[in-house]
User: What shape does this take?
Amino acid sequence: MSSPGRKVIISCAVTGATHVPTMSEYLPLTPAQIRDQAIEAAEAGAAIIHLHARDPADGRPTPSPDVFRQFVPAIAEATDAVINITTGGSTRMTLAERLAYPLQAAPEMCSLNMGSMNFSIHPLAAKVSSWRYDWEKDYVEGMEDMIFRNTFKDIRHILLTLGGQGTRFEFECYDLGHLYNLAHFVDQGLVKPPFFIQSVFGILGGMGADPENMTLMRTTADRLFGRENYQFSVLGAGRHQMPLVTMSAILGGNVRVGLEDSVYIARGVKAESNAQQVRKIRRILEELSFEIATPAEARAMLGLKGRDKVSL
Assistant: This one.
């Protein structure tokens, strides 16, 4: 259970690379939209802003450093939130493409998927009768035959290169085995506490969104690392978002929301912004007597190097 006086970190994943424009008219696509929604989410209480980039012409995911630079520095100038840059990109990007901007920016934090896996939302394609852009249908349906690759060698490379620049990681764990993958790198001395473990539930190819799975992930992480050595956090995909992240806080963890993870704010109601989701989970947490961590408190909890040591 949670301890009295503990601060809860709210992360916000602003746009991602999984949802396509047709799925929500509110999904930020252009650099200006990503910038504005990220700043608003930070103002609403998100201590960490998790960022992907999209081609401003049609909203498709892009690893282009030129596109990242159109919004990341502006977010950093407008808010003190921790900037967290993806190293996952999308299933269609090479490792070199996924690392192109993070290696230039050397941010305080990057996300890091802890293993190769099937990762798909292809069943959703059957629910769409008309697509906003012609690339979207093939992109979503094609996930059925795509694998997200992060081999042990890939992960080691990311830890050595970005970690060598002082970047720390949001370790995204989609399955129980990913915790053991993390433990492998801890044993090798490539990862040192405090770890930030982001348990992911509800993605086809990963763990189901069952409360029992969260308990299993939490207790397994305790055994592998010792609770004093890591911060636990949860994201729930789609309709599972708010119930699961609330449970995470009750179990002593932190929370992640954002339009990358769910385009809804309530059943059948689309979220009009990332900040709307941040405000909702903040209200829930505060009504449960939790305190929300500031960016400075999140930096201290996660052992981050500080904004002054990045090249955004």
Observations:
- The chain has one domain: 7-309.
- The domain at 7-309 is CATH 3.20.20.70 (TIM Barrel).
- The chain has eleven helices and 16 strands.
